[in-house]
Amino acid sequence: MPAPQKDAHPPRLREAHCHLHAHGQAAAMVSLDRCRSLPECLDALERAARASPRQGWLLARSARPESWPEHRWPTRSELHQACPDLPLVIWCFDHHALCANPRALAIAGVTRATPDPEGGVVERDPSGEPTGLMLEAATRLVWSIVPEPTPEQRKAHVHLALQDLAAKGFIEAHDMLSHDWLGPILAELRREAGSDGLPCAVHLYPLVQDLERIASTRTSWESAEVRLAGGKVFTDGTINSRTAWMLQPYADPIPSHPRGTPLMSVEQIAGAIRTCTDHGLHLAAHAIGDGAVRACLDAAEVVHSSSPLRSSSGPLRSVTSLRIEHAELIDETDVPRFAKLGVVASVQPCHLLADIEALRRLLPHRLSRVLPLRELIDAGCGPGELLWFGSDTPIVRPDAEDSIRAAVHRRRPDMPADEAISPEQAIAEPEAWGAFCC
Among 94, 99, 142, 154, which Cα is nearest to 117's? Predict the structure, then answer.
């Protein structure tokens, strides 16, 4: 498979979906992205535990259990054996699930009596004892008690992330899930940079419930390089965690959630769009499954029904832009609705390279609906206009060529052509680079 042509990309690249602080912080965590099996994961954790000081927490990231032959997370006893002396947290690569060892569970106070939080699942063994696996909102039961980085560490993490993105050719980065301290940190870095300015411009998207508070402070940190761009919501989970909201059941579902876990109703999503509109901002809606994507489009129609606008060419345009983030599966009937409603499909094709095994195992009956890029463009979502590319770093590395490869070839470079996922949805390389163009 030929490598993407580096000289073919546009000069102004936009990283449309990233997590700046987490990208910088990830360098200090134990990476499990090279583990190809459960034993390899446990060996890596055991080595890291032996090398760690006997204090603090051991934090690991980028676990992909769905790609391992075992298709499961470590058990409580396996985690205790690998790391008996430190509280341990392992993040799934998609940050929608984490696994904690018994010591971390004890510190967090998670027991068999702990109820599932709203929007989350505490996985339990047949006896009712928590296994250590936390899904969606349940991750906060453990992660909330992990010590926060110091202000100095946060600033260093953000600076490192900006430098890394700039080195990869990005001049603009959209930070999803922005904290209230990020704007002030970016303003401070900008002042310290003097006439050089920041390595790349940053658009902030905090959670919608935090929008009012953060918007009230924007005059103290906004600039030409840093601005509040919108709000963020989560309408479902992820495929690897089997919590993405699907129109049809998974082939191997969570028994109590056969089609994933819807996190918002159409009415709630429409309300979030209106909240952002009131501030003159956009809404970025996390929606991975085709059920969540449809709910977001339905919400856009609800908003349009009360205040429609039309472009000179005729199709409806959003009162305030709605961005659907990820949109990893889109039902065929919903594809034309993006252009009709003026909704941005903000996707990360690079995820396909790592998700192939999980997609085949969990959604073999829906592979034709995975990232229908060809259909989106043909239906009017022009690259760089209504079709944007990003990486979701640190979930996946922020290398534009990964998304170009996935969009053009629909498979990893070591795979034969007949193993491509929905090859009919492939797009041309100039189109793929155009989706990164500001």
Answer: 142
What's the CA gap between 236 and 36, in Å, rounded?
27
Q: Is the peptide bond before 394 cis (omega within 30 degrees of 0)?
A: yes
Domains, the chain, in order of start with CATH, read 6-21+156-434 (3.20.20.140), 28-143 (3.10.310.70)
Sheet holding 322-326, edge to edge: 230-234, 282-287, 322-326, 344-347, 387-389
CA atoms of 78 and 66, how far apart (whole Å): 18
pLDDT digits (tens, 9 = 90+) for 257-314: 999 999 999 999 999 999 999 999 999 999 999 999 999 999 999 998 887 554 444 4
222 phi and psi angles, rounded to 5 deg: -70, 150
- DSSP H stretches of helix in 179-248: 182-193, 208-215
The whole-chain average pLDDT of the chain stands at 92
* Measured distance between the N- and C-terminal CA atoms of the chain, rounded to whole angstroms: 28
* DSSP designation for 114: P
Q: How many Å apart are CA 168 and CA 359, to the nearest integer?
A: 29
Q: Which residue reads 């990486």 in tokens?
A: 391
Cα dihedral 163, 166, 168, 173 sign: positive
Whether the model clears a pTM of 0.85, i.e. scores above it, the answer is no
Residue type, 214: I
Is the Cβ–Cβ distance between 308 and 255 less than 8 Å? no
Contact 198, 38 (CB under 8 A): no
Neighbours of 272 (CB within 10 A): 26
Q: Measured between alpha carbons, how far is 290 from 329 in angstroms, rounded to an integer?
A: 5
